[in-house]
Amino acid sequence: MSIIRKRSAAHKSYLPNSARDNQYILAEFTISDELIKRFSVKASTKKITPSTTNNSSENYCEFYQNLAKVLFDLSELFEVENCLFIANDKLTRVRFNQEMHQWQTNQQILFYYNPESHQLKKSFYDANKRAKKISLLFLTTGTNIRENAAGFHAKISQLVTAFSNKTAIELSDIRLRDHQHITYDLFNENKLNKNKPTNNKHSRTQEHKLRSLINRYASQQVTLPEFHSSMTYAIINLPISNRLLNMVDVDPNSTDPYNPLYTYLTDTFTQSAKRYNLNNGALIANGLVPIVRYSIHEITSRMGELQMLGYNPAQNPCGIVSKWDASELVDNVQLVFVATDKNQTEHGFGRFLNQIEQAIKLMATELEMEPHKEEVIVRFHQHVAYNF
Question: Tell me: the pLDDT tens digits for 218-231?
Answer without folding.
Answer: 999 999 999 999 99
